[in-house]
Design brief:
Blueprint lengths: L2 H9 L35 E4 L3 H12 L4 E4 L15 E2 L6 H14 L4 H6 L5 E2 L3 E5 L2 H16 L5 E3 L1 H7 L10 E5 L3 E3 L1 H14 L3 E3 L4 E9 L2 E9 L2 E4 L3 E3 L5 H5 L14 E4 L11 E4 L4 E6 L2 E6 L6
Parallel strand pairs: 1-2, 1-13, 2-9, 5-15
Antiparallel strand pairs: 3-8, 4-8, 5-7, 6-7, 10-11, 11-12, 14-17, 15-16, 16-17
Length: about 325
């Protein structure tokens, strides 16, 4: 079903170079007000979080739950880096038990009536349309069966389906080359900008402070007992005294890490995706992932967003 997509994805790159530039024009919800007081830029904080994407805002929110005096710094607008164009796929089952627990917590945050909505009254943009892992051979299906066993331990409802059962669930799918599938009804997808908008409000309601258009110019350190310690963060708006910095800058993490002489083993690659026109009958169909081909099909309104990860990108 999906093998032809890989060739097509090589021919079309849906991300322009601006996605890894210093700014991103046209970012969804970037014009929404941020809860900050420009006249009272902080001079100290227990923790400084760098990066205004989903990870940075989640970090600020959870620090707020712990009662920590924390601030978030974003050089542009919230989600302006790579968050705004991410797929936002939520798969409940992961090979790692830690990943599975983290995803379960995320679902508790974002689901309808979940933790964030109860606190803020805002929808997180989560669409609970389910998820489907495709196996094209026995070995892959055996792996999915092991995942199902892991899911039972975490009380995650999953179902191993035959090609015929898969066809009933997803009538548009050609199952001629499908060996079997793993279906997880709790899965879905998030609109990343809507999620961050709700998350940032929740964080500020708990005392977190967010400062956009604030670039980090340097991180000061000192030697204490032979170890380097953070003493503060220099920004274009002033110096913040702090002993703790959380680097949540994603693709820019190596740049921030170098400020304190730390190598961050992260290399960003350009990701390809295609958005289809409306497809009759695709509404409410589950998201699909083929691990052998490294391709996903994400429900996008009445169409699909199709993405792939190439093992040796150009």
């Amino acid at each position: 079903m999906l093998r032809a997509l890989r060739t097509r994805l090589r021919l079309r790159r849906a991300l322009s170079p601006r996605c890894l530039s210093s700014t991103a024009e046209g970012v969804p919800h970037s014009d929404r007000p941020v809860h900050e007081n420009a006249s009272q830029f902080p001079t100290e904080a227990d923790v400084v979080v760098i990066g205004g994407g989903s990870i940075g805002n989640s970090t600020l929110y959870h620090l707020g739950k712990l009662g920590v005096n924390a601030v978030l710094l974003e050089k542009d607008q919230l989600t302006a880096g790579t968050t705004w164009h991410s797929a936002g796929l939520v798969w409940s089952l992961r090979p790692s038990d830690i990943d599975t627990l983290v995803i379960g917590h995320t679902l508790d945050l974002v689901k309808e009536g979940g933790e964030i909505e109860r606190l803020t009254g805002m929808d997180c943009g989560f669409n609970n349309n389910g998820g489907l892992f495709i196996a094209n051979n026995k070995e892959r299906l055996d792996e999915y069966k092991r995942l199902q066993t892991l899911g039972k331990y975490f009380n995650i409802d999953t179902h191993v389906l035959s090609p015929e059962e898969t066809k009933k669930l997803y009538p548009l799918m050609n199952v001629d080359d499908v060996y079997g599938t793993l279906y997880s009804p709790a899965d879905g997808c998030l609109d990343p900008s809507t999620y961050v908008s709700a998350l940032s409000k929740a964080a500020t309601m708990l005392g977190g402070r967010i400062y956009t258009d604030t670039s980090v110019q340097a991180i000061s350190t000192k030697e204490t007992r032979g170890r380097k310690r953070v003493t503060g963060v220099q920004t274009n708006r002033g110096f913040i005294k702090t002993e703790k910095v959380v680097n949540c800058t994603g693709a820019w993490a190596p740049y921030i890490s170098k400020m304190v002489g730390v190598d961050c083993p992260l290399i960003p690659f350009r990701h390809a995706y295609v958005v289809t026109e409306n497809i009759p009958g695709v509404e409410n169909m589950p998201n699909v992932r083929d691990h052998d081909l490294s391709v996903y099909l994400r429900l996008q309104g009445n169409g699909l967003s199709i993405g792939g990860y190439e093992p040796w990108p150009d």
